[in-house]
Design brief:
Helices cover about 30% and strands about 20% of the residues. It has 12 helices and 19 strands. It is α/β, with parallel strands linked by helices and about 425 residues long. The longest helix has 18 residues, at about 20-35. It folds into 3 domains: about 1-260, Purple Acid Phosphatase, chain A, domain 2, CATH 3.60.21.10; about 265-350; about 355-415, no CATH class. The chain has helices at about 20-35, 55-70, 100-105, 155-165, 195, 235, 280-290, 295, 325-335, 360-375, 385-400, 405-415, and strands spanning about 1-5, 40-45, 75-80, 110, 115, 120, 135-140, 140-145, 170-180, 205-210, 215-220, 220-225, 245-250, 255-260, 265-270, 305-310, 315, 340-345, 345-350. The strands form 5 sheets. A 6-stranded mixed beta sheet has the order 4-3-2-1-13-14, with helices on one face. Strands 7-8-9-10-12-11 form a 6-stranded mixed beta sheet, with no helix packed on it.
Length: about 425
């Protein structure tokens, strides 16, 4: 027997508020299904089919579009809820119906949901009549579902060990979990400790994880395929990869192959602003870099990547002097980008002092502060004293109620002489 294992498909995620990016998430999923589903007996989704609990009609259409062919070919899709698409409590006794349950009721997926009764975890076999159950059996393979427990999963797992023990034995058992293994993921991601999960190794042959968006595997037993699309630009450049698993079962053994997703291309371009004295110089340099962007990156005329320009280093002029709107517009045109973002990490050169700790007059402090502001912009730093005197005179004229016309004439005349 063969199966595909997916996690974190995130249908409905309109990244960058882009409808095209929203479509990308269903396209990546559908591409993998079209290429590999013809050779499998069932498909697993370990949570987060949807990006959020409340989806729009377009997202529901995307899900049906992706799953319709599998339903026609009678390939079962077995799923659990993740933290993004789980049902919520309407009251202490009743849950809201999730969109996953809607898909399950329509026969597109089989949503597995264990439940508690009098403090005991109950695992019920799938019932085709009411489309409900906690586990399903396909030939000699049993697939057991779980819920999203968040930080309380360590406390919940002993209940699963006890419940699974009570099931009749089958040669091959799969457990679907939406969580991460603490030892293999960043600390702030939460998850479950491996030793808490280890008692299940006696009963479970394959732990099918979701939740973490990069691929990782533990002891030929625990498998996390990663998401099928990049939910951030950092994810795109994560070398651990993302996609799905194609798994072949032989008795109580398996052969696992990871299949990488085909995704929209992302590019991250860095420019050090330290070497440019004026915003015009920096603008010219940036535009020049993008003129050969498509050729250098072997992009055809139809590809629309996501491009992020990072400005780093020191800035030799005031931050708002650089026309970022013009850069975005021209950059998008030259790269044929779907999305062109600027990440402004550059910092103006600062020469400031904590004047509160210096014994100087208010007038001297004011002059020092104006000095610092002018010095940070290379366009005016060549004549700091004259610009400082002009600004102070202009301030004093305003305070002396001199007319704006007179102040304008004085400033205009002074600037012509600089």
């Amino acid at each position: 027997m063969k199966f595909l294992h997916f996690g974190d498909i995130h249908l409905g995620y309109a990244q960058y508020n882009s409808l095209e990016r929203k479509k990308d998430f269903v396209i990546s999923f559908r591409n993998l299904l079209e290429q590999y589903s013809k050779e499998v007996d069932f498909i697993l989704i370990s949570g987060d089919l949807f990006d959020k609990q409340n989806i729009d009609a377009r997202t529901m259409n995307h899900a049906i579009y992706a799953l319709e062919d599998l339903k026609k070919r009678k390939i079962p899709v077995i799923a659990i809820e993740g933290n993004h698409d789980r049902s919520t409590l309407r009251s202490a006794e009743e849950e809201e119906i999730s969109w996953l349950e809607c898909l399950s009721g329509l026969g597109y997926i089989k949503l597995l949901k264990p439940y508690f009764d009098k403090g005991k975890l109950c695992l019920e076999k799938w019932n085709e009549e009411n489309n409900r159950g906690s586990y399903i059996e396909i030939n000699n393979v049993r697939i057991i579902g779980s819920r999203w427990y968040g930080a309380s999963i360590d406390k919940m797992m002993p209940h699963y060990v006890n419940a699974i023990k009570e099931l009749s034995s089958l040669p091959y058992q799969i457990l679907l979990l939406h969580t991460g293994i603490k030892e293999y993921i960043p600390e702030n991601y939460g998850g479950i400790a491996y030793n808490i999960l280890e008692p299940l190794k006696e009963y479970i042959n394959y732990v099918a994880l979701g939740h973490i968006h990069f691929k990782y595997e533990v002891n030929d037993w625990i498998y996390n395929p990663g998401s099928t699309e990049s939910c951030s630009i950092d994810e795109y450049f994560d070398i651990r990869g993302k996609g799905c698993y194609l798994v072949e079962i032989n008795g109580n053994m398996h052969t696992v192959t990871h299949i990488k997703s085909r995704m929209r291309k992302f590019f991250r371009i860095e420019t050090d602003t330290t070497y440019f004295k004026t915003p015009e110089e920096l603008y010219g340099h940036i535009i020049e870099r993008f003129k050969n962007f498509k050729t250098e990156n072997k992009l055809n005329n139809y590809e629309q990547p996501v491009v992020e320009l990072i400005l780093k280093g020191s800035l030799n002029f005031m931050r708002n002097a650089l026309d970022t709107i013009a850069i975005e517009s021209e950059g998008k045109k030259l790269t044929n980008a779907l999305v062109f973002n600027i990440k402004y990490n550059s910092m103006p050169i600062e020469y400031s002092v904590d004047y509160s700790s210096v014994d100087i007059s208010r007038e001297e402090m004011e002059k020092h502060i104006i000095h610092d502001i002018i010095r940070s912009d290379s366009r005016y730093a060549y004549d700091i004293e004259k610009y400082t005197d002009l600004i102070i005179k202009m301030k004093n004229d305003v305070l002396s109620s001199i007319s704006s016309e007179s102040i304008y004439k004085d400033v205009y005349s002074a600037l012509r002489g600089l």
